[in-house]
Amino acid sequence: MTSDHRLSVARVAVVSLGLSLALMGTAMARNPMVGGAPMYANKTIVENAVNSKDNTTLVAAVKAAGLVDTLNGPGPFTVFAPTNAAFAKLPAGTVETLVKPESKATLTKILTYHVVAGTYTASDLMKLARDGGGRGQLKTVEGEPLTIQSKGKKVFVSDAKGGTATVTIANVMQSNGVIHVINGVLQP
Question: What CATH superfamily is the domain 31-182?
C-alpha cells in the first residue's frame, strides 16, 4: 500500500468517524438525558424509563400496578412522569402503601391519571393552554382531566385536587409517545 493510499484510507476513516459522532450527537440533542441516562426515540416509554436513576420509584410503581405491557404497547401516549423527588414529597409511607398488592387499584388510578392518549409535545401543550384562554384540559387514561397552563416557556399541569406540577424536562420522545418529566405527583 502506498503512502498516498494509506493517507486516503486514513482520511476516509476520520471523516466516517466524524460523521458517526455528529449523527450520534444529533440523535442525543433531540432527546434530553433523564436521570443521567440517554433516552432513545426508538425505544418505548418503559424501555427508556428503566434506565433513569431519577424515575426508579415510578418504574417500581408501574411494575406493581401491572402497567408495563400497556406502556410498552403501541400507544401513542403522553406520560407526565414524576421524579423520585416528586414521590418523596408525598406523606411518609404513601409510596410503600401504594405498591402493596392490596393497593393495586388505587395505584393504577393514580398512575393512569399521569397518562394521556396521543402524543402532545410541549408546543402542543402550550397551544392547548393558549386556545383555552390560559387553561387547557386533557382527558387522562384514568378518565378525569388534567389542566394545562403555560407561562413563558414553562408548562404546568394541575390535577383534580388543585395540586400543580411543573414540567422540568419536556419532549422526551419515545417510539410510542412522549414523556414530560414533572416535579409533582398528580392526584385524581
Answer: FAS1 domain (2.30.180.10)
